[in-house]
Design goal:
Number of helices: 22
Radius of gyration: 24 Å
Structural class: mainly alpha
Helix content: 55-70%
Oligomer: single chain
Length: 492
């Protein structure tokens, strides 16, 4: 596990904004503006109140959640296949680029993954206890319910998890459910009823969002089946990026998982993990075909199932040399993939906010210009994280009016008034040096320069300096520019 020393990206800054809201807002219909549930924001709110807004403190929260999820996965492997499998799963998880990325990302995804892992442990304890004693235990049911609620309340798409879990259990025991497994079925349905009642409020919020055009999801493009399969392959089998190291890595994981399934198929734990993995991917594909909600981040949680099965595959080798050789080879591949993919831990579509503020802090009479309400809110949070020991931001932030992006719904009305382009000379001094912050979504300098700026992880996030008269000459946008049209055309 590592805490990344790179700038927070836009979505992480949005997390900090929501974490500043009163708890009464986060757990009310005020959240109709936001597609992500309030639990992570609530946890982050308490976390920064205790440890502050430094970059290390903020990233420590998902890192600890990642460590906790790894412990749960180790316990699952230990209960399902013994110590050798537990050691293999520990090594694979610790070196997984995807798991490290999620543990470095200040959003709720690692909590969703941990919730699924906790619920899976409950299911495994449930079938093991029922198999041995013909009775169920409250602790197993509690783990399943609490894990499922943790997953649902940290990411909305996790509503599919109880469906996947229930269908997997039914298929596992379909021949015997109405004979000697009827009690297990009733207990599972009762647990799901509890999950439905407790998560019902957020389900209501989600339904209200689906019934209207959901601006926050407008940027997600519909994906053909082939593209979804490619995304699952590159994002869900523990490797990251598409280089040759990653390709060999996910082939190795797939092979070891297949060996784990083949050699341990008679064990109900193996069959359940296999069903959970297959049905998770299948259900996500169905949902993604019906509604464009899938991204590289929302599909990462099913990776725990090939991870666990690959650990079982390593442990199934009777020869100590073969077992150590397989685990060492996989560890080398995963380590190499983590090294080659380290640059992608900062998402490529976002600019380096920390570099921008540090650069501007050294420019006399310098000011940052951002476009739109959400960018203003993000900039305020970025400056606070960059200078956590200062009471106010040392860099003036000027927010100019943008075309009303449909992806900005969560920020509407929360950033104060926006400045019209032609009003900039009336707002700032003529001697002020204006620098436009830019990323792949927002780039005020495009109008000033007359063409899109080159934006990449390696490029500087600021364009300028510009004068106030430059903005006045450009004038307020009468319509969307090329980038805005592309974004809006992708919206439903």
């Amino acid at each position: 596990m590592v805490v990344g020393d790179h700038s927070l990206v836009f979505d992480e800054l949005a997390s900090l904004f929501f974490a500043e809201q009163p708890v009464s807002r986060l757990w009310s219909d005020w959240m109709l503006r936001e597609t992500n549930p309030p639990l992570f924001y609530t946890l982050l709110k308490g976390w920064v109140a205790l440890f502050g807004h430094s970059l290390g403190a903020i990233r420590a929260l998902p890192t600890l959640a990642g460590m906790a999820s790894m412990v749960v996965l180790i316990v699952i492997a230990l209960r399902a296949h013994g110590e050798r499998a537990a050691v293999a799963v520990a090594v694979i998880t610790a070196l997984s680029a995807q798991h490290i990325f999620l543990s470095d990302y200040a959003r709720g995804y690692i909590f969703s993954l941990g919730g699924v892992a906790l619920a899976t442990l409950g299911l495994l304890l449930l079938i093991r206890d029922d198999h041995a004693t013909r009775r169920t235990t409250s602790s197993a049911v509690a783990l399943y319910v609490l894990g499922s609620l943790l997953a649902i309340y940290t990411h909305t798409t996790m509503f599919i998890w109880p469906l996947v879990a229930t269908l997997s259990m039914v298929l596992l025991y379909w021949r015997r459910f109405f004979q000697d497994r009827a009690r297990l079925l009733l207990v599972l349905f009762a647990a799901n009823a509890i999950i439905l009642v407790v998560s019902g409020w957020w389900l209501w919020i989600t339904v209200q969002q689906v019934l209207v055009t959901n601006d926050n999801l407008g940027w997600i493009k519909p994906r053909p089946v082939r593209e979804m399969l490619w995304m699952f392959r590159t994002e869900s089998l523990l490797t990251r990026s598409g280089d040759w190291v990653a390709r060999i890595g996910y082939l190795a994981v797939t092979l070891l998982a297949a060996i784990g399934v083949a050699r341990n198929w008679r064990e109900p734990e193996t069959r359940l993990l296999t069903l959970l993995g297959v049905l998770s991917f299948g259900t996500l594909m169905i949902v993604g075909s019906a509604k464009p909600v899938l991204t590289q981040l929302t599909i990462m949680w099913p990776m725990i199932f090939p991870l666990l099965l690959a650990g079982m595959g390593v442990a199934s080798f009777r020869s100590t040399g073969l077992r150590l050789g397989a685990l060492t080879s996989l560890a080398v591949l995963l380590t190499a993939n983590t090294y080659t993919a380290r640059g992608s831990f900062m998402l490529p579509h976002d600019g380096d906010w920390r570099l921008a503020f540090r650069s501007l802090a050294t420019v006399p009479d310098g000011a940052m210009v951002v476009e739109g309400e959400s960018m203003k809110l993000a900039a305020e949070q970025a400056c606070r994280v960059t200078f956590p020991n200062l009471a106010t931001c040392p860099v003036p932030i000027l927010a100019i009016r943008a075309v009303n992006y449909r992806a900005d719904r969560w920020a509407r009305g929360l950033a104060g008034s926006m400045i019209a382009w032609e009003a900039v000379p009336k707002t700032v001094d003529r001697t002020t040096k204006l620098f436009a912050f830019r990323n792949l979504t927002y780039d005020a300098s495009e109008r000033l320069l007359g063409h899109p700026s080159a934006v990449s992880r390696t490029s500087h996030p600021l364009s300028g300096p510009f004068t106030a008269e430059d903005f006045a000459k450009a004038g307020s946008p009468a319509g969307p520019n090329a980038r805005e049209r592309q974004i809006m055309s992708a919206a439903p």
